[in-house]
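A note from the maintainers: we've had questions about how concatenated examples are separated. There is no special marker in the raw files; a new sequence line simply starts the next protein. For clarity in this README we add a label.
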Amino acid sequence: MIRIDAMWLTALTEFGIEVVKLESSLTAPDPENGRHLRTRRDQMGHLADWFD
């Protein structure tokens, strides 16, 4: 599954769906979308490891 927010991951497991692997999106941050992606990670709980 491509990484999304933690709430989806929790919901899937609560419905009995086993998530066996998480993959990062192929889209990396750039000057135009970096702020947006940080906001999604920090305020919405999206699982993003681009800034680690």
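[label: protein 2]
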Amino acid sequence: MKIILDTNAYVAFKLGYSELVEYLLRADLILVSPIVLGELMLHLIYTFRRKYATKIPG
């Protein structure tokens, strides 16, 4: 079985939702679309900037 994850499914996986994890374990192939990768990358950039912007004085 092939599965393609959207952003919500990826977040649920990272949070450890047991039903989703069990479902993914049965998959032969798990795909993530370029759109989801872009959304996750933007989130990381935003989080990184926000985290370090608060540490810079002035």
